[in-house]
Design goal:
The chain is α+β, with helices and mostly antiparallel strands. It has one domain. The chain is built from 4 helices and 6 strands, in the order ααβαβββββα. Strands 1-2-3-4-5-6 form a 6-stranded antiparallel beta sheet, with helices on one face.
């Protein structure tokens, strides 16, 4: 669900801001969009109400990322507004005007897939972002992937 829609408490607003900061620490040129999804009825039916979705776009093609925009989705089990929420998975997908170019998920053993993968260095930077997000939500990764 759009991160802007989920910003209902100081705690969640702080987490959303930190997600943005963590990504932009690795990719300073990224422009954050806290509402990447259209608000039409059809799209809203597809939302996971317990996720925080943000996108990061670039003014120029990022050859090392093999895309111009990255969608970042952080999924939870339980009500996102509850202190008892549990981080479920983190998913990132790279896009350009042709559509999705690659995907990465912690649910899929931290592996990248798709027809146009980011460079090895970019893959490591994305894994660094994901590791920091796990720590942000209180689930530090015990072994570096």
């Amino acid at each position: 669900m759009n991160a802007s829609t989920q910003a209902l408490s100081i705690s969640i607003v702080s987490k959303i801001a930190n997600i943005s900061s963590i990504f932009q620490a690795q990719y300073p040129a990224a422009i954050v969009d806290f509402s990447p999804w259209a608000l039409d009825e059809k799209t809203q039916k597809e939302f996971d109400i317990n996720s925080l979705d943000l996108s990061f776009s670039f003014t120029q093609w990022q050859s090392h990322l093999s895309c111009g925009c990255v969608l970042l989705q952080v999924y939870f089990v339980g009500d996102l507004q509850s202190a008892n929420r549990v981080l479920s998975k983190i998913k990132l997908t790279g896009h350009d005007y042709r559509g999705q170019r690659w995907r990465f998920s912690t649910h899929a053993d931290w592996q990248f897939s798709g027809p146009h993968l980011p460079s090895a260095e970019a893959q490591q930077r994305i894994k660094t972002i994901v590791t920091q997000l796990h720590t942000l939500f209180g689930y530090p990764v015990s072994t570096r992937r």
